[in-house]
């Protein structure tokens, strides 16, 4: 049974370094998450990150423990952590979730090709929308 953890954290990355740091985060996350069979989505809203991680519980919790020690985050809090019947982001590898009114950019894992690629034009499912809405709500609490 998959495990889902949703957390939020305050971004400590200086504005002039944000673009390059986010590129580094996505690059490392895609590679490491694939190895650990972790999928999910990341919302960046102003100075807040909200991320959903899905996978085997010990792998997800180990990743969260690593994120807690990352100096680019502060004020981390777990929004939800529970076993779920199915992953809602089973094909997403650290997708970028946009703010309200913007399209989401799911990054699909292609296990045969060994990487992730943007899934332009692919709609989200109602199950994904429910989790994405929860993520957006958590970002607004700030």
TrEMBL record:
User: What InterPro entries would the database entry show?
Assistant: Acylphosphatase-like_dom_sf (IPR036046), BLUF_domain (IPR007024)
The name of this protein is BLUF domain-containing protein
Q: Which residues form the BLUF domain?
A: 2-95
Give one GO molecular function term: blue light photoreceptor activity
The segments labelled Disordered in the record are: 99-130
């Amino acid at each position: 049974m998959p495990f889902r953890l949703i957390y939020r954290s305050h971004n400590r990355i200086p504005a002039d370094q944000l673009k390059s740091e986010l590129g580094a985060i996505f690059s490392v996350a895609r590679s490491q998450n694939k190895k650990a069979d972790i999928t999910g989505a990341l919302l960046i809203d102003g100075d807040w990150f909200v991320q959903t991680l899905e996978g085997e519980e010990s792998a997800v919790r180990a990743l969260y423990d690593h994120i807690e020690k990352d100096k680019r985050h502060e004020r981390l809090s777990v929004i939800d952590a529970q076993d779920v019947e199915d992953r809602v982001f089973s094909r997403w590898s650290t997708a970028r979730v946009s703010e309200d009114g913007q399209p989401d950019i799911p990054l699909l894992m292609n296990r045969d090709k060994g990487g992730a690629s943007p899934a332009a034009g692919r709609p989200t499912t109602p199950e994904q929308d429910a989790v994405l809405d929860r993520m957006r709500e958590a970002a607004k609490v700030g």
